[in-house]
Design a protein that fits this description.
Elements: E1 3-4, H1 17-29, E2 47-52, H2 57-71, E3 79-85, E4 94-96, E5 101-104, E6 107-110, H3 113-122, E7 127-128, H4 143-150, E8 156-161, H5 166-180, E9 185-190, E10 195-197, H6 199-215, H7 218-228, H8 235-247, E11 253-260, H9 262-265, E12 271-279
Parallel strand pairs: 1-5, 2-9, 3-8, 3-9, 4-7
Antiparallel strand pairs: 2-12, 4-8, 5-6, 10-12, 11-12
Helix pairs in contact: 1-2, 3-5, 5-8, 6-7, 7-8
């Protein structure tokens, strides 16, 4: 059985269990966070889906906590699907992880072998490729939050996108919707938004991009990226989860929280934008 060890513990989040649990609690209770710890009030749903940022916890963790507070309202999921971008160009264009476990300071989380096999079988473009995940942070940083809100036993399906064009993203989303049909699944799209622009510019561009996510309109979402040159790094994962969510019966996106790195550092000259959204 394969074990994928944590690649960015001690960089993007603390490397000890106690410090990591404390950091996650702090994200929920932060002034930029939801101001309360999970679980949220339980909801009756077959699927839940969110967009969550993936920077270092000190910068984007409180924003991510809004998404995970919403996920904590979901009762007894049997699968968590995390779709994340491939920043480093290593490995295949659309990659999952066939089997085994991923390790974080909070313990190990099991890959759902059946879901991974079904995803590769259903999709004409996905393969199992551990190399695509080996050094990537964008998926890994979501897992301690997953473990914190759902416990150690929930399995997950990792999906890494090097190819993020509209055709690929929507095809991935369609496959995910078929794989999770009949299961109680939570979907997470991992993405930061505008990178390294003044805060006012980032907020303006990101607001337009978020409008497309709220409408669950993949076409206008990609048009905004092209027209405004929005440098969101996980636009493909957002589009994939939007597509899957609509096919699973969710009808609109809702912004839970937006902030930039400048809200934490006080430097608004060059920021990264972070958004937490849910699909309902």
């Amino acid at each position: 059985m394969s074990l994928r060890k944590a690649a960015v513990a001690g960089q993007f989040y603390p490397s000890s269990k106690e410090a990591l649990e404390s950091a996650i609690r702090g994200c929920f209770l932060s002034p930029l966070g939801p101001g309360r710890s999970p679980p949220a009030e339980r909801i009756a749903a077959d699927h839940v889906a969110v967009v969550s940022p993936h920077a270092g916890y000190e910068f984007s963790g409180p924003v991510a906590a809004h998404s995970f507070l919403h996920l904590s309202s979901f009762t007894d999921p049997d699968l968590v699907v995390v779709v994340a971008p491939n920043h480093y160009g290593v490995g295949s264009g659309v990659a999952t992880f066939k089997e085994g476990e991923w390790e974080t300071p909070l313990g190990r989380i099991r890959v759902d072998e059946g879901a991974a096999e079904a995803f590769v079988r259903d999709s004409e473009i996905a393969v199992s490729d551990p190399d695509a995940h080996r050094v990537e942070h964008s998926l890994e940083v979501q897992l301690p939050f997953v473990q914190y809100v759902f416990g150690p036993s929930v399995p997950f399906l990792p999906v890494s996108l090097l190819f993020q064009d509209s055709e690929t993203a929507t095809a991935v989303g369609r496959s995910i919707s078929r794989v999770v049909k009949g299961r109680r699944a939570a979907l997470v799209a991992s993405s930061d938004l505008t990178h390294y622009e003044p805060a006012a510019s980032a907020r303006r561009k990101d607001a337009r991009l978020i409008e497309g996510v709220e409408r669950m309109d993949v076409s206008s979402f990609y048009s905004t990226i092209d027209r405004l040159a929005v440098t969101a790094c996980g636009y493909g994962p957002i589009a994939a989860v939007m597509t899957a969510s609509r096919l699973l019966g969710l009808r609109r996106g809702e912004l839970l929280k937006y902030a930039t790195s400048g809200d934490t550092t006080g430097d608004n000259n060059s920021v990264v934008g972070y958004a937490s959204l849910r699909f309902v």
